[in-house]
Amino acid sequence: xxxxxxxxxxxxxxxxxxxxxxxxxxxxxxxxxxxxxxxxxxxxxxxxxxxxxxxxxxxxxxxxxxxxxxxxxxxxxxxxxxxxxxxxxxxxxxxxxxxxxxxxxxxxxxxxxxxxxxxxxxxxxxxxxxxxxxxxxxxxxxxxxxxxxxxxxxxxxxxxxx
Length: 162
Known about the structure:
By secondary structure, the chain is mainly alpha-helical. It has one domain (about 1-160). Helices cover about 70% and strands about 0% of the residues. It is built from 6 helices and no strands. It is globular and about 65 Å long. The relative contact order is 0.11.
């Protein structure tokens, strides 16, 4: 019975595959936004607004947002695999796998910390995009986003995930 209970952890493979597929999709979308920004900046594509440069910059920021979220999903997929699916999750096993140091996760606390740090960056990019696109129509409610960034940053500093 206990053996069957611990075999259920392999269901996490579904999350790993879905996260990898989502990361691939976000990388493709980010690449599309980058190509679209070049087309707008070089005059191959017409825009509705008067300023092609600002539209191209917004497209680049959107591609950055997509790439960052793709990296989050990639990190989530690798760390979920090594934490829940891999039979051995020792430092020696992780050292044998040829992957960047930032993808190597030691425990669930490390994974949560990195994900929160990336969420901070995503919020900052989203706030930047909002400032650029709606600079004339900003309301005081926009201040919720920087307040959230500060709250998450302070909580990251105060909380020990180990």
